[in-house]
Amino acid sequence: VASLGRSQKRSAATVQYFDPSYSLYPVLIQTHGAALNPVALNKDFSLPALGELKGRGWDFNAALSYVTTPNAPSGRAYANTELEALCRKQRGVVVLDETYVDFAKENAMGLALKYPHVLVGRTFSKAYSLCYMRVGYFVGHPEIIEALQKVRDSYNVNGLGQVAALATLENLEYYRKNFRRIIASREFLSEKLAGMGFEVFPSQTNFILVRPPGFPAKTWLEKLRQQKILVRWFSAPEVSDYLRITIGAEREVEALARAVKIILVKH
Ligand SMILES: *Cc1c(COP(=O)(O)O)cnc(C)c1O
User: Residue 62, Cβ neighbours under 10 Å: how many?
Assistant: First the structure.
């Protein structure tokens, strides 16, 4: 690092990600003393075109870049062609965070296998309901995996977590059936809400981001809560007009649709 120029030094300490995205990135980046570089997504939460990224402050030399695909809280997935174009131009390590990939049409595993500076990150925490077991993994070139071994905590993933993760793999059919149910419920609810005047972003995750009609999103949060239905509202300005609704079991999705109808009729 001593022989690098000033901007190269800055890049060598920079971890960047698109905003809005996973809220823990900035927290963890700061904990590790790196420089944060959040870069705004387009208003509809799509990725900025490659040619526009530099103008938005994206650093093609940053040490580490996170791309969450599909993303949270937008639910939006980026196409492999778009991700590949970004990876090809990027000098530092790129992590494609595929936490929600089981609910998506495409996955980017091929990019981790093709490019030595690209890692795909996955977890058993969401689609496999094992968040309390703390099991996740990276797939990538043996050289980066080896480098990760050097810097990671010396204690391994806990034994019960490993047993639980292996048990899910022995029952993939059960999980895949659940993914299909959740995707079907997501499409059902998306259509239902769109029919009641909501703007619904196309989702490839187990939640949808919607802009509700009639009154502010925060008021909707409270009105739904009065009917014992919990959804998420985020105060950050890019998403404060929206609600994030997690797709539950069929009867929960139907209960939400009924509650929305009641709120609209009373209004
Ligand atoms: C939940 C989540 C994670 C973290 O998963 P863990 O394996 O439980 O640490 C990472 N990225 C995104 C986008 C998430 O939503």
Answer: 25
Residue of the CA atom closest to atom 13 of ligand 1? 22
Q: Whose CA is nearest to atom 3 of ligand 1?
A: 99
The answer to whether 219 touches 249, Cβ cutoff 8 Å, is: no
Helix (H) or strand (E) holding 136: strand 136-139
| Spatial distance between the Cα atoms of 209 and 164, rounded to a whole number of angstroms | 31
User: Residues with Cβ < 8 Å from 6, sequence gap 6 or more?
Assistant: none
Secondary structure of residue 186 in the 3-state scheme: helix
- Residue 193: which H helix or E strand, with range? helix 172-195
Best mutation site among 95, 97, 120 for ligand 1 pocket (most ligand atoms within 8 Å of CB): 97
Q: Which atom of ligand 1 is nearest to the CA of 126?
A: 1
pLDDT profile of the chain (267 residues), mean per 10: 76 95 96 96 96 97 98 97 98 98 98 98 97 96 95 89 97 97 98 98 98 97 97 96 98 97 92
Percentage of the chain modeled with pLDDT above 90: 93
- Which of 123, 244, 246, when mutated, tests ligand 1's pocket best, judged by the most ligand atoms within 8 Å of its CB? 123
Task: Give the Cα separation of 56 and 38 in Å (integer).
Answer: 10
Are residues 41 and 33 in contact, defined by beta-carbon separation less than 8 angstroms? Answer: no
Q: What is the value of pTM for the model shown?
A: 0.95
